[in-house]
Specification:
The chain is an alpha/beta fold and about 675 residues long. It contains 24 helices and 20 strands. The protein is globular. Bound molecules: adenosine-5'-diphosphate and magnesium ion.
Length: about 675
């Protein structure tokens, strides 16, 4: 299957059918055979007609008498009788007039369908039928159900997959033979066939295991290879200056948590090492990652190195610049801190560039576009990537090229991923977890609110504002032209709040389509408490830190994913004031399991695990699309499989075998090594 065979070369697939397949993302034979079923119907047990019980059944019978007629306008009924021995059963199809001519009376068929009451008599309803054979695909087996599209049903997909069985069976092995043997894995060819046409549930399970193993093997191999490569790089060793750290801490308005201290200590150790640091700090929203990163930067600055701090949005970059400026001030390091973002005025921007070139600004804060900026980073010692999970090999190479050496890299994320999973996905990173929140934080009170009871919510919110607190109202859209029926837009809500319910309060509006500088101004005004209420889109989702805000209203909460909801909620409860979160439903229907889980749980790690359960294989807390990691079958909740695959990739590397001889694997591993969340 190495060569690309267009689907039209398969018997019975003309251009029209090929176009339908293209709609489900299948244009080559390889696409087709790797387009695994979404689910299966078990019609494998062939029952005698005398033994039929209500439910899904399969019989082997001869067709007698098949007739079709319209019972009324638009309602066609085909009826037939199927016989095995001296027993017979009625078959009924609705609105499938072709049935009557498609089936040959007297021939023996496999017939699979639901055996149930129809017009007071039992019958097999709308059954699939196919001439008796050694290899039925629609009946008398575990039947694959594919993703379908108008005009392309699973029946036809099965027929085409069956045509491709010769190429499926000729599939070459992609894993090293010794690994296949050691873990008693099915061959790739058998596994692919079994995914489409399993002989039994165990057969299917084994196939899933084999293909899942291969996927995770590739993933972990990519991570380990990245790690090995990093071990060949040498670093700018940055010494730890205890006195500097002590002084910094002495000026903090709070005491660091134990997790923060432990993490900072790990960063200092890494930065003193011979190889560049590549560490991910995972900490739930509000756990205090910014101060940790700032402390790491201190040591780099002290040695005269540059620090680049990259945030996902300009809004956040600006905010970080303010925070870090304030944190650095007591040490007199604040003059080294500078902002560099796209929306700055040309004059400001060239001033920023000049300050960097002159070595005056050495702590540069910007968006992820910073590595594309034409700034001299010959002295880059540390790169901090906020709200990012992974910095792919390509990005690392770019950095290295730019700096002339590999700087230390610190990534930070508030998307908590269960540890075993994190190790698989980010195997090349060292991981620190900030689990505990600062003391004195009260758990946020979350109450799902139906559209009929918003008034009570507004009253509670207004009481908070009365006490001097502030509130966010988040909407899924900017304006009504993006219209989804029943979905609130920020502009509409802003109008309603500022002219209606909250006309006695100061209400601001913030959304992604505004100019960068305008956004910054609004945010600045909100931080300075010139607004009581900020109506916003999800531009404020990540990172924004306004400790005085205690109320978060999320309109059309059902439109958001669990991770996003948790991030939004994390905008409040960032001080010792009690925080409140009100997810407002789009309609008065009962809330989903997802929302109820959100209401009950304040812990990001717990929610991540729940999300994994709720959304099943491949879904990791909204972090990755299947496409990016290329996972079709692996269940990332299958810790045993993951451990085996990881162990094997370690063994593979130790074996010294070259990846080149496994071209399929090599190609995938190369792709995965470059995976990054940037861009
Ligand atoms: P995140 O981990 O979400 O990036 P931040 O770094 O923005 O969180 O910190 C959230 C808030 O908590 C900030 O206002 C910060 O000043 C404060 N904070 C950080 N560490 C502590 C601590 N140890 N005790 C009290 N407040 C803290
Ligand atoms: Mg943050």
């Amino acid at each position: 299957m190495e060569e690309i065979i267009p689907l039209t070369s398969v018997k019975g697939v003309g251009p029209a059918v090929a176009r339908l397949f293209a709609m489900i993302g299948v244009s080559t034979v390889e696409d087709l055979v790797l387009n695994f079923p979404r689910r299966y119907d078990d019609y494998s047990v062939v029952t005698k007609i005398t033994e039929l019980r209500p439910g899904p059944v399969t019989i082997r019978g001869q067709i007698e008498k098949i007739t079709g007629r319209y019972v009324r306008r638009g309602m066609h009924v085909t009826e037939a009788v199927a016989r095995d021995g001296d027993q017979s059963v009625r078959l009924v199809w609705f609105n499938q007039p072709y049935r009557a001519t498609a089936m040959k009376p007297g021939a023996t068929y496999f017939i699979s369908g639901l055996f149930e009451l129809s017009f007071q008599k039992f019958a097999i309803m709308n059954p699939s039928t196919e001439l008796e054979s050694d290899f039925p695909v629609n009946t008398a087996r575990i039947v694959p159900i594919y993703r379908e599209t108008k005009g392309l049903k699973s029946t036809q997909i099965r027929r085409v997959v069956k045509e491709c069985l010769p190429s499926i069976r000729a599939t070459t092995e992609t894993l090293p033979h010794w690994i296949v043997e050691k873990h008693g894995l099915m061959s790739r060819a058998e596994a692919i066939e079994a995914m489409h046409f399993p002989n039994s549930p165990t057969h299917l399970e084994e196939a899933t295991k084999r293909l899942g193993f291969e996927e995770v093997f590739g993933l972990t191999l990519a991570a380990l290879l990245n790690k090995h490569e990093a071990m060949t790089e040498s670093s700018l060793q940055i010494p730890f200056v205890a006195q500097l750290a002590t002084e910094f801490v002495s000026h903090l308005p709070f005491t660091l948590t134990d997790d923060q201290k432990r993490t900072i200590w790990q960063l200092y150790k890494d930065m003193q090492g011979k190889h560049p640091m590549n560490r991910l700090v995972e900490g739930d929203v509000g756990s205090g990652k910014t101060v940790v990163a700032t402390m790491a930067s201190l040591m780099a600055l002290e040695q005269g190195y540059q620090v680049a701090f990259m945030a996902p949005t300009e809004l956040l970059a600006r905010q970080h610049a303010d925070t870090i400026y304030a944190l650095m001030k007591p040490l007199g390091y604040e003059s080294q801190v500078g902002l560099l973002v796209g929306s700055m005025k040309p004059s400001q921007k060239s001033a920023a560039h000049a300050a960097i070139a002159a070595g005056q600004t050495r702590f540069i804060i910007g968006t992820h576009a910073l590595i594309q900026e034409k700034v001299d980073m010959q002295k880059l010692g540390l790169v901090i990537i906020d709200e990012q999970h992974r910095f792919g090999v390509e990005q690392r190479k770019k950095l290295q090229a730019k700096a002339g050496h590999m700087p230390h890299v610190l990534s930070m994320t508030a998307t908590p991923i269960p540890r075993s999973l994190a190790l698989t996905l980010y195997g090349e990173l060292d991981i620190s977890i900030i689990g505990a929140k600062p003391v004195g934080r009260l758990p946020i009170i979350t109450s799902i609110t139906s559209p009929n009871s918003v008034e009570a919510m507004y009253q509670a919110a207004d009481a908070q504002i009365e006490q001097g607190r502030q509130m966010f109202i988040v909407c899924p859209l900017v304006n009504d032209s993006e219209a989804m029926v029943g979905t609130k837009s920020a502009e509409e809500v802003f109008k309603k709040m500022s002219q209606g319910r909250f006309k006695h309060r100061r209400v601001g509006l913030l959304h992604g389509q505004m100019k960068g500088a305008d956004k910054a101004k609004i945010m600045e005004d909100f931080v300075a408490h010139r607004y009581d209420i900020l109506v916003a889109t999800t531009v404020i989702e990540v990172g924004v830190d306004v400790p005085n805000a205690t109320v978060m209203i999320i309109e059309n909460a059902d439109r958001f994913g669990l991770a996003q909801l948790h991030q939004l909620r994390g905008r409040v409860g960032r001080s010792s004031h009690q925080g409140y979160c009100y997810p407002v439903l789009s309609d008065s229907k009962a809330p989903s399991r997802r929302l109820k889980a959100f209401e009950r749980n304040n812990d990001g790690f717990k929610l991540a695990e729940l999300d994994l359960e709720l959304r099943g294989p491949g879904a990791i807390y909204g972090t990755f699309q299947h496409g990016q990691l290329d996972l079709r079958v692996a269940k990332l909740s299958d810790t045993k499989l993951i451990a085996q695959a990881r162990q094997s990739s370690q063994e593979f590397i130790e074996s010294g075998e070259s990846l080149v001889q496994y071209s399929y694997l090599a190609e995938r591993v190369t792709k995965l090594r470059a995976v990054t969340n940037l861009n």
